[in-house]
């Protein structure tokens, strides 16, 4: 397979460009690509460009070729609202959600979130998750990079997204997916932390019009629940 790389900047229409330091290192030191090997670059604008690797010393360059406007975005605009999960679970969730086609990821601090982040630590973790999203786009062929929003409280999220169509995943949710109509706009899917949403959080979500969604009789882990729901929604309304 031809390697795909995200170019941090705007790709010019033609000519030669130096590869960003991280991309150059990955291409030359990790993948050990050789002079003249083909690659594909994308800058997040929806366009991908055929390119050829040029090596000068320790720096990689790309000679740009044909441009392609190729959309691999789902017709279902799905926003994942994910309560913070501990360890490397958030990396996994962001990576797989992007592979499955979500348009945006919004991390929220929930009452029962084990992971607690604020200030500089929160900013660094957000930047890390954004890079995870970029890597997932490189792997999955997406040419538009979903945003990983800054970490926010559930209250702040609800206030900033008033009127959004929301599904909140909850054990015993009153509506199964099969009964729901196709969404007419962006759909926000809300997934709780390891301990689940608290009663007060569920009530706050319901007060904004959120529908409590059930995914069957089994209790799913936070890193499983959202991905299972996304895959089911893509199969029902999207492009899977």
From TrEMBL:
Entries under InterPro entries matching the protein: Alpha/beta_knot_MTases (IPR029028), PUA-like_sf (IPR015947), RsmE (IPR006700), RsmE_MTase_dom (IPR046886), RsmE_PUA-like (IPR046887), tRNA_m1G_MTases_N (IPR029026)
Major localization class: cytoplasm
Alphabetized UniProt keyword annotations: Cytoplasm, Methyltransferase, rRNA processing, S-adenosyl-L-methionine, Transferase
Leader peptide range in chain numbering: none
GO molecular function terms attached to this record: rRNA (uridine-N3-)-methyltransferase activity
Ribosomal RNA small subunit methyltransferase E PUA-like domain location: 21-61
Protein family membership: Belongs to the RNA methyltransferase RsmE family.
Protein name: Ribosomal RNA small subunit methyltransferase E
Organism: Parazoarcus communis
